[in-house]
User: What shape does this take?
Amino acid sequence: MNLFREIREDILAELAAMMQEGALPAGLSLDNVAVEPPRDPAHGDMASNAAMVLARPAAMKPRDIAAALAQRLEGHARIARAEVAGPGFLNLRLAPEVWGELVEAILAAPDAYGRSRMGRGQRVNVEYVSANPTGPLHVGHSRGAVFGDALAALLEYSGHEVTREYYINDGGAQVDVLARSVYERYREALGHAPEIGEGLYPGDYLVPVGKALAEKVGSRWLGQPEEVWLAEVRAFAIEAMMRLIREDLALLGVEMDNFFSEKSLYDSGRIEAAIEALREQGLIYQGVLEPPRGKMPEDWEPREQTLFRSTAHGDDVDRPIQKSDGSWTYFAPDIAYHFDKISRGFDRLVDVFGADHGGYVKRMKAAVSALSGGKVPLDIKLIQLVRLFRDGEPFRMSKRAGNFITLRDVVERVGADVTRFVMLTRKNDAPLDFDLARVLEQSRDNPVFYVQYAHARVRSVMRKAEAAGISPGAPLIEDAAEVTLAKKLAEWPRLVEIAARGHEPHRIAFYLYELASDFHALYNRGNDRPELRFLQDDAAATSAKIALPLAVSIVISAGLGILGVTPVEEMR
RNA sequence: GCUCGCGUAGCUCAGCUGGAUAGAGUGUCGCCCUCCGAAGGCGAAGGUCACAGGUUCGAAUCCUGUCGCGAGCGCCA
Assistant: This one.
């Protein structure tokens, strides 16, 4: 049941009838007709802009259209009153029994309420994390991981078929650096002092990897030149790092459907194939780029390179795909990777990148646009920085080389549920302050606690009702605080679609906070007015009262499910 | 210099494909404790939505420009 959609359909049907009867010109587009919760509850339960968006194409006065529409709508059973306001708003007040029907519908199909078919089964690939396989995940990665994971769940919830994917950067120079770093730890394990020079990864996490390697191959690579061992050490190290990363992701409850290896592109000629696809469109050429305007690099000199004409698809300058020595730039395998995604038949692609990849967005979109003939939209979500605090003070771990704040540090400190929820309480393109102490506070300004607390309160009430042998019955929703809460529940399906359409999982978190707030308001009102309490002396009254909180817990549970947070039964 | 993001209450932030008198939390002030907690609730005060133009019935939202903050900026991944 989606009340907003249903009432919108009622309005569309009346508008169609008006066109049929000549009260409106035929053939008007109704796409922009919206039904929304009004800003001010005094305006009623729902508001529509129908008359205002149709006024111009119909060449009529908005208030005239609204008045005619209002008169027709008042004949509907669910609409108690329809009135025209302001420049031509249509304000609707719904029949009181609608709220009880809504709650009943939620209880009748708890798993279905809020789910949407908006995605029409479209296949979406969400790529996230994709951290270099050179070490454990750090805090910044965890925000991307949580965001991508919640977005994937949100898209599934709204009717998409989602693949969660991780791109392993195992083809570039940094995995060679990893191999050399592990080699030093290997020597260390065999009793030699490691020489961890400038540019190698110094982190302790490589010590056990070197040890494992030593156990596996013994001393046969000691004193050997790099050509002998590099490839094998690299493969060994990458595998160890990916195991580490999977463990880190598992700590957060993130599980990928697919890990895609960059290296597999090099080995298989697929980069050449992707570039060839662009070449066929005349988008590949040999050329010399203009020097960057303004800031002239010291060592700049014109060089001929293989370039991708990304400007033909909205980029600012064409981009090199081959270095002057003929080897690929990083962009080339990325093109091939996205070409692969397209050829796997995805209808839409989403990339979740760190904000430092901002300069990469236009060229990537250009490549996808060219390779898919403009048919596959690519949305790139840039995740801004996480700033760690503790009790308001910037939080820094020892600056000792290689020792940084990891995902594991944070999750072990505050738990996966708290980490996930808090990471989603800001939109992705705004920086996030994460206070390791405050996120554990039990107070209203901690949204995790506040939402969990609402759920725990309902569960407690339900346990007591069950103990008394009372089950929820036909809901009775009369008081203003009850109606406010029911209205908030009515917004859920609509909110899911808005959040899914915009790829904005943070909206779910904010909604849950508002829902919890309306719930706590009603709950506390019971302190002064015993007739509003859920548990009444009379069993029949209790049965009618507990339906609404139960519906609230169902929606909280569904929302937390999208965010990947476990709803709790009671507060510690 | 160019590109992208951001600029909303003292502070931290929401704000839907453009809608009515711009909303929360926090802080300040007033009132309120037996259903799970006053770790809370109710109410009040608090705004030139950075600035200047434009588009239109209507702009925090779209467009142009300016200012401020952050990030990125030819063979680095």
